[in-house]
Amino acid sequence: MSTPTMKAVRLHEHGGPEVLRYEDAPIPAPGPGEVLVRVHAAGVNPPDWYLRGGLTEMPGEKGSTVSLPVIPGTDVSGVVEAVAPDVEDFAPGDEVFGLLRFPSFDGSAYAEYVAAPAADLAHKPAGVDHVHAAAVPMAGLTAWQFLIEVGHDHPSPFHRARHRPTPLDTGTTVLVNGAAGGVGHLALQLAKWKGAHVTAVASSAHEAFLRELGADRFIDYTRQRPEDLVRDLDLVLDTVGGPAGGRFLRTLKRGGSLFPVFPADVAEEEAAKLGVTVSTAQVRSSGAQLAELGRLLDKGTVRVAIDGTFALSDARAAHERAARGHIQGKVVLTVR
Questions:
Q1: Phi, psi of 218 (to 5 degrees)
Q2: pTM (2 decimals)?
């Protein structure tokens, strides 16, 4: 008896966007605690191109779980097709979205069907379509776990201590670096939801967009250095990181916090001298937290921006778009 197949994007080798193959693959069967989701859309995230490029071991995890061919992708929105006998919270026909099996490279979301842990899923908000829902999970949970609630006890592999968010309220001053990107534009809105005064840093092309989302102040980093303009902040969320990450230390008041989303070169001695806490987290799947985000999305308190959509069969073009950078919101794959 032949195995039922679906269309999927798979890697048979590592390399540039050209190694993404759109082809037939077996439809997975849901295991214990899982549901089979018919995918309508899949978000595109940095781990997808890290895997494509050859990274097969997730930082902090014990070894690699990757064997070729492999289907990339972690962010998904779709409709439940079938459920395992032990799953009670979902039923066939339910619309769901989620970040699958993260941190790992086992999400397998670039496909027409995916077997997803029920604990990683939430019911999709009725007022949000699949494209916008698929754009939320990784970026939204990253912003949530950095700013609102970690929700787990796992320290980041890049930081010894458990991350603790800074309490946000009407007296809190926050700067978001890279505010137009996936994590940045959602973090800006979460901080505003809590009442904080938010300075957004991005290029001038994104100013109107970020002010519409609620930014109280905008800095065009191509014309001015934010570290020369801002002082006495409570919190900097740096979604860019890299060798210049330490430049934000002197923008913070004593007792303030610097949260690099990506690894950043920050001198521990200088941070200690200035009385600044440097802390980071590694995002993890959470259906419960996604449900909370979903309520904010349904109310319109938070919205997700779409930089562009590409058919699943055109995943190469989606990765090429991501590689060009300066993304406003998220890139999403659509599945017929």
A1: -125, 135
A2: 0.96
Burial 202-229 (b: 16+ CB within 10 A, else e): beeebbebbeebebebbbeeeeeebbee
Contacts of 324 (CB under 8 A, 6+ apart): none
Q: Is the pLDDT of residue 212 over 70?
A: yes
Q: Sorting pLDDT into bands at 50, 70 and 90, what band is 215? A: very high
Last residue of a domain, one of 260, 278, 296: 278
Domain that holds residue 48: 5-138+284-334
If one counts the domains in the chain, the total is 2
User: What's the number of CA atoms in the CB half-sphere (13 Å) around residue 244?
Assistant: 8
The amino acid occupying position 85 is: P
Q: Quote the CA–CA distance of 327 and 178 in Å, as a whole number.
A: 10
> At 184, phi and psi to the nearest 5?
-60, -45
The tokens describing 41, both together, are 């859309």
